[in-house]
Amino acid sequence: SFLRARGCNTSNMSIKQAIGHKFSPTKVHITEKDVSLYALGVGEGWHPTDQSNLKFVYENHPDFAPLPSMVVNFPLAVLAQLFENVPGLAFNPMMLLHGEQYFEIRGKIPTSGTLVSSGHISNIYDKGKGALVVIDAITVDEATGKEVCFNQSSLFIRGLGGFGGDRGTAADTNPPSRHPDVVHKEETTPQQALLYRLSGDYNPLHADPSMAEMGGFKQPILHGLCTLGFATRAVVHHFCNSDPAHVQSVRVRFTKHVFPGEQIITEIWKVGPRRLLFQCSVAGREGLVLSG
């Protein structure tokens, strides 16, 4: 998700000082209700009598489990610290765009408990018109001390480019030149963003019409991480026999917005024994909204 506004002045030469900056560890307490609420927020439960749907939204199901993409919300409070006096990195929050997201499952995702996330700025790339700030975060289960997941969030800040840093490389996510193995079409609801935000992403761009208008949108837009959740669900149900344990990692690039109520079309290609490529578009509009 992103907002459009004028930038603020900063010293480009000081931006490199922010590389390696460590954020304060944050805690998130999750319950079975949070697990179900997240699943509902990314569209699960359309078929409430289907056991493959019910296992993600009903705590008494014998196979009750979180959807893998829920882990992207665990370090949100770490990312929020980017707006708090990071040395060498001064910017207008209205200029920030969530460009890419990667998550890796490293242990069992609990259905309840306390999770601790620690993060740092691993790199900042000079993209000319802006800077791409990469934040790495590891989340552990406080009770066991074991790692649960790793997240890497790439945030594009317009107006901070030209400081002489490395441009970085772009990942090759072009799908094969054949028809996808699966095309999954699913409607979002008009209240999808209002439901998803209750899982922790309270950016007003996704709820407040006046903020959406400031960003140049006719209405609040869907969270990019919600679209990621829809796509991950399609993978879990079509290629993992609805077993979330088969998902090891996911990487996506956010390219366009989605309005709540639009239909998300997820095309998926199997390109290896344990590797898939997918992309999302919306019905009635050209271009991709997500690729991964």
Concise description?
The chain has helices at 32-41, 51-54, 76-80, 192-196, 209-214, 224-239, and strands at 26-30, 96-105, 113-126, 130-141, 147-158, 182-187, 249-254, 263-272, 275-282, 288-291.
What this model shows, in words?
The chain has helices at residues 32-41, 51-54, 76-80, 192-196, 209-214, 224-239; strands at residues 26-30, 96-105, 113-126, 130-141, 147-158, 182-187, 249-254, 263-272, 275-282, 288-291. The chain has 292 residues and is of the alpha+beta class. The chain has a ten-stranded antiparallel beta sheet. The two termini are 17 Å apart. The relative contact order is 0.18. Residues 1-12 have low confidence and may be disordered.
Continuous helix count: 6
* Helical proportion, percent range: 10-25%
Sequence of secondary-structure elements: EHHHEEEEEHHHEEEE
Cα-based radius of gyration, to the nearest Å: 19 Å
What about the largest sheet? 10 strands, antiparallel
Overall SS class: alpha+beta
User: How are the strands of the largest sheet arranged?
Assistant: 1-3-4-5-2-7-10-9-8-6
pLDDT < 50 stretches: 1-12
Average pLDDT, all residues = 91
- Distance between termini? 17 Å
Shape: globular
Count the E strands.
10
**Oligomerization:** single chain
Strand content: 25-35%
